[in-house]
Amino acid sequence: MTTLDAPADGFSPVATGAPGRLALVAEARALAELAAFKRVRAELIRELPHWPTRSVLVLPGFMSSDLATAPLRGCLSAVGHKVSGWGRGRNFGLRPGVFEALEARFLERVAEAGRPVALIGWSLGGLYAVELARRYPQVTQQVITLGSPVSGQLTANNVWQLYERLAGHAIDAPPIDWQPGALPDMNFTAIAAAGDGVVHPEAAHARPGPLVENLVVPGCHTGLGWNPHAIRIIADRLARR
Fold first, then answer.
1. What distance in Å separates the CA atoms of residue 165 and residue 188, rounded to the nearest whole number?
2. Which CATH architecture describes the domain 25-230?
3. Closest Cα partner for 129 from 139, 138, 116, 118?
4. Is residue 98 classed as helix, strand or coil in its secondary structure?
5. Are 92 and 115 within 8 A, CB to CB?
6. What angle, rounded to 10 degrees, do the helices at 30-47 and 66-78 form?
C-alpha cells in the first residue's frame, strides 16, 4: 500500500491494507441497518441532548450525496441544531473547483450563523472537513469524522482506484494543497466502524493528541450515516462546551 508523507509533527500511522473482500460484501447490511434505524429513530431523538444548539455542516462520502446524510441531519435538526448539507450533488472527489465551492459554502454558513460552524464529514467528506478546519480554525467549532482515512493512509480502502478514475487525479496528487494526516488544532472526534468493509478501521483513526478522540462503533461503513451509536456520539460532542 502507499502511505503519504507523515505530518510535520512526525506522526506515522501503522500501515494497514484495505479491508478484506468478505468485509466489503458485508457492507450490504447497511440496508438492514437503515431499517433498524427507522424503527428506533423517534426514541433515539428523545434520548439526544437538545442543548446547546450548533450550526453544523455535514459533508457526504465518495459517490454519495446529501441524500445519504439526511438521516443524520434529520436527527440533529430534530434536537435544535441548524444543519446544512453540502449542496453539490454527488461527491465524485476533488475535481477542479470542488473544494473552492465547498470553501465558499462553508464561509456562507459561518456568515449566516454569526458564529463558528461544526464540521461533520463521512468518509471522503471527513477529509474535506479536516482541510476546511485547518484553513479556517477560528470559525470552526469542532470536527467529527465518520469512517474517514484521517490517519493519512489514503489507500487503506477498497475504493481508491475507483476514486482516481472518477476524480481524474492520483490519490496522492489532488488539485489542492493539503496535508493528509495533519489535523486542525481543535476538538476532533474520529469515529470508525468496527465492521468497515470500505475504509480500514485503523486508517479511520487520527494521530493521538490532547484534543483527539478516536472511537469505534459497531456496524459497517455504508451505514454510518444512520448508525444510532454514531449519532449518539455526534450529538453528545456537539452538546459539549
1. 31
2. 3-Layer(aba) Sandwich (3.40)
3. 118
4. helix
5. no
6. 20
Q: Which three cell numbers stand for residue 57?
A: 455542516
Long-range contacts of 37-43 (CB under 8 A, 24+ apart): 37/71, 37/223, 37/226, 37/227, 37/228, 40/228, 41/71, 41/75
Identity (one letter) of the amino acid at 97? G
pLDDT in tens, 97-143: 999 999 999 999 999 999 999 999 999 999 999 999 999 999 999 99
Q: Count the neighbouring beta carbons within 10 Å of the beta carbon of residue 139.
A: 17
The CA–CA distances, whole Å, from 49 to 68, 108, 233, 236 equal 23, 27, 10, 7
What single-letter DSSP state applies at residue 5? P
| pTM of the predicted model over 0.90 | yes
Task: Show me where the domains of the chain are located.
Answer: 25-230
| Amino acid letter for position 110 | V
Q: Which residue has the cell 450533488?
A: 89
